[in-house]
Design a protein that fits this description.
It is a single chain. A hairpin with a 4-residue loop joins strand 3 and strand 4. This protein is α+β, with helices and mostly antiparallel strands and 350 residues long. The protein is built from 10 helices and 9 strands.
């Protein structure tokens, strides 16, 4: 492309931009189809540029882009070609036109009349509404109800005799409990290891049901995914948590139902005025009230971890016991099954 730019004639030497582009194309030896593929411009527009038929070209912005691309493909200076195009095809100035619409003097003449007509119309509407209201006003007249009927008093007395009396309020239901394990009928022996048809079989021990944590107000402290110790206020009380260096980790007057989740692996002391005012939840299950006005937070976290390990051990032991029971039942069923009968041997072929 650099050699083409050296051999191409200068844009300033040619009489028109179109002649310069045509001479450069002939000097390059490329066809119009090849240049159209290189520039991605339709051959009709390239021919219009060479013949100075700028009226065939689309808008002025696209035309300058075509000139820049064509000059670059022919090895000519793109900026010079665009400037030459601007000089030969200047942008037509749009003459100013007088504003259209009603003349100002005419508006001044007709505006008072229009305003007067609107005023008369508004006054007429208001007068008509006032006239309608005045006509519909009725003169005052004595009330037709001169006394209370006697049957009204009798009905009121009978309603008092049939008054509804409420009894003592019932106790509130527990916040939340863990439901008993549901076992599909017919699968008791496989899941629990106890045959329901055996009258001498001892029922499996029911797991202890503990009240689960039920938030009834704002919950402060750590997130539920990391905390294993939760303190919930049973009544309005103050909760202060001090770290080992004396700094206050948390201090707030908690209302009924509000709770605080303890962060794990933090050395701190829980300080309360009334330990019975707070319920302790370990791993989401109720574990009683605070043991003392000042309780180490590490002790509560250790208790929660120990109970979690015990729960896992109990679950693993129960699963192992069930697996052994199923294996024993399978062995007993296999031993009780009759041995297979051997098929008679076929007679020898004669």
């Amino acid at each position: 492309m650099d050699q083409d730019r050296q051999n191409a004639p200068s844009l300033e030497d040619a009489e028109t931009l179109g002649e310069a582009l045509r001479a450069a194309r002939l000097a390059s030896g490329r066809s119009m189809a090849q240049l159209s593929t290189m520039t991605r411009v339709h051959p009709r527009y390239l021919t219009a540029l060479e013949q100075n038929e700028f009226s065939v070209l689309p808008s002025r912005i696209f035309s300058m882009g075509y000139v820049r691309a064509y000059a670059g493909a022919l090895g000519l200076d793109e900026l010079t070609a665009v400037e030459r195009f601007k000089r030969e095809f200047p942008e037509a100035a749009v003459p100013l036109q007088a504003p259209t619409g009603a003349a100002l003097q005419q508006m001044r003449r007709t505006s008072p009349k229009i305003l007067a007509a609107l005023g008369v119309l508004i006054v007429a509407v208001i007068g008509w509404n006032v006239f309608q209201r005045v006509v519909r006003i009725e003169p005052p007249h004595p009330s037709d109800l001169v006394g209370v009927p006697k049957n009204w008093a009798k009905e009121a007395d009978s309603e008092v005799e049939r008054a509804l009396y409420l009894g003592a309020p019932r106790a509130a239901p527990p916040d939340q409990t863990t439901p008993a394990l549901y076992i599909t009928p017919g699968l008791e022996a496989q899941l629990t290891g106890v045959d329901p048809d055996d009258p001498n079989a001892a029922p499996p021990p029911a797991p202890p049901v503990q009240a689960a944590f039920n938030p009834r107000g704002a919950v402060y402290g750590a997130s539920a995914t990391t905390s294993v110790v939760t303190l919930q206020a049973r009544k309005p009380a103050t909760l202060v948590v001090r770290q080992g260096d004396g700094r206050i980790l948390f201090a707030r007057q908690l209302g009924v139902g509000e709770a605080w989740r303890a962060p794990p692996s933090v050395s701190a002391t829980v300080d309360v005025s009334d330990p019975t005012a707070f319920d302790v939840y370990l791993n989401g299950e109720h574990s009683g009230a605070l043991p003392a006005p000042q309780s180490p937070l590490g002790t509560l976290n250790n208790r929660a971890q120990a109970e979690a390990r015990q729960s896992e051990a109990r679950a693993a032991a129960a699963a192992e016991a069930q697996a052994r029971a199923r294996a024993a039942q399978a062995a007993a069923a296999l031993a009780a099954a009759p041995p297979p009968v051997a098929a008679p041997a076929a007679p020898p072929a004669g």
